[in-house]
């Protein structure tokens, strides 16, 4: 397996991977019925494309496939600044995809309520947004390596804080194994409308959203720079 930084020219191949392995199966997407396996989702693809433009994302490529770029895993990372989440929330009203709005209304409001910027007094964060591995390649440690390399990218670029909204039990375990800590949680059963109906009936074993963080101290950054 080879690991490479994702460049904008890889966007369509990354999207194709996500259409087949992430868009329909991610716990919140599945609960909302956002899209079918293999189909496109313009709103979600725009969200992914924004992260790719930040040039902080990593892909896993099957090295045995010599004649083509076979992407078998991706982690899409972005740069988050104060005010970005509030702006994204305000733009949701203009999005005509009701299922997309359900998902990101939860994510954005939870992040605004549990504000990492205020707690850690930082002016930007490394935001781990999407972690996906091809279903045929799972169980080989690819997701772990993608997270490990994301932490290295964050350190190399001088970030003090990494953040991830982990929606499923498997990604939550992976992030915690790399030193991420839980900052806040939202049980899906308690995310309800005015009539008490659950808005996103996420299937077990996924029972809650976790907002996780990993702080990087100055010594870690200095050590990383010296080794480059």
TrEMBL record:
<dbReference type="GO" id="GO:0004059">
    <property type="term" value="F:aralkylamine N-acetyltransferase activity"/>
</dbReference>
<dbReference type="GO" id="GO:0008080">
    <property type="term" value="F:N-acetyltransferase activity"/>
</dbReference>
<protein>
    <recommendedName>
        <fullName>aralkylamine N-acetyltransferase</fullName>
        <ecNumber>2.3.1.87</ecNumber>
    </recommendedName>
</protein>
<comment type="pathway">
    <text>Aromatic compound metabolism; melatonin biosynthesis; melatonin from serotonin: step 1/2.</text>
</comment>
<dbReference type="InterPro" id="IPR016181">
    <property type="entry name" value="Acyl_CoA_acyltransferase"/>
</dbReference>
<keyword id="KW-0012">Acyltransferase</keyword>
<keyword id="KW-0808">Transferase</keyword>
<comment type="similarity">
    <text>Belongs to the acetyltransferase family. AANAT subfamily.</text>
</comment>
């Amino acid at each position: 397996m080879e690991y490479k930084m994702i460049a904008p020219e890889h966007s369509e191949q990354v999207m194709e991977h996500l259409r087949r392995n992430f868009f329909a199966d991610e716990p919140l997407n599945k609960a909302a019925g956002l899209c079918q396996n293999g189909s496109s989702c313009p709103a979600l693809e725009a969200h992914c494309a924004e992260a790719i433009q930040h040039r902080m994302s990593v892909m896993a490529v099957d090295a045995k496939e010599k004649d083509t770029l076979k992407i078998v895993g991706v982690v899409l990372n972005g740069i988050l600044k104060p005010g970005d989440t509030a702006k994204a929330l305000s733009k949701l009203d203009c999005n005509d995809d009701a299922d997309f709005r359900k998902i990101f209304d939860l994510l954005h409001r939870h992040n605004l309520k549990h504000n990492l910027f205020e707690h850690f007094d930082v002016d930007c964060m490394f935001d781990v947004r999407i972690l996906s591995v091809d279903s045929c390649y799972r169980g080989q440690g690819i997701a772990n390596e993608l997270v490990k390399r994301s932490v290295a990218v964050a350190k190399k670029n001088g970030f003090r804080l990494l953040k991830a909204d982990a929606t499923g039990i498997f990604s939550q375990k992976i992030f915690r194994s790399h030193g991420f800590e839980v900052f806040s949680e939202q049980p899906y059963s308690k995310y309800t409308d005015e009539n008490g109906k659950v808005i996103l009936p996420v299937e077990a074993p996924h029972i809650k959203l976790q907002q996780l963080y990993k702080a990087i101290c100055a010594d870690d950054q200095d050590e990383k720079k010296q080794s480059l």
